[in-house]
Specification:
The protein is α+β, with helices and mostly antiparallel strands and about 110 residues long. It has 1 helix and 7 strands, in the order αβββββββ.
């Protein structure tokens, strides 16, 4: 009887440790995703911040939900391919292109 109780307690302790191991790690407090909205409830912007600076994918939308811009930030500055769309849905050739250090490098 005493032996079976010991086995039960050890089994429960092992199970509790397994459950804790399977839980996802808490989110990094320095990283957050922020979304802003129009009064209609439509998403206006979506982006990720790390240590208070923009980092990673960023998107913006027109009030009708169509995409306005899309690109990525590195260390708070526009980097890589950025695409901008006009309200009629056409690609804005004058603004779209490769960005480096926050400025447009190539069309």
């Amino acid at each position: 009887m005493k032996f079976s109780r010991i086995l039960l307690v050890l089994g429960l302790c092992g199970l509790a440790g397994l459950v804790r191991a399977l839980q996802p790690a808490p989110p990094d407090p320095a990283q957050r995703t922020q979304m802003t909205y129009y009064a209609s409830g439509q998403v206006r912007t979506s982006g990720t911040y790390h240590n208070g600076r923009r980092e990673g994918l960023s998107e913006a939308f027109y009030p009708d939900g169509s995409k306005k811009e899309e690109g990525a930030y590195e260390s708070g500055q526009m980097s890589g391919q950025w695409n901008f769309w006009l309200p009629n849905g056409e690609l804005d050739q004058a603004r779209s292109g490769q960005y480096s250090g926050g400025t447009r490098a190539l069309p």
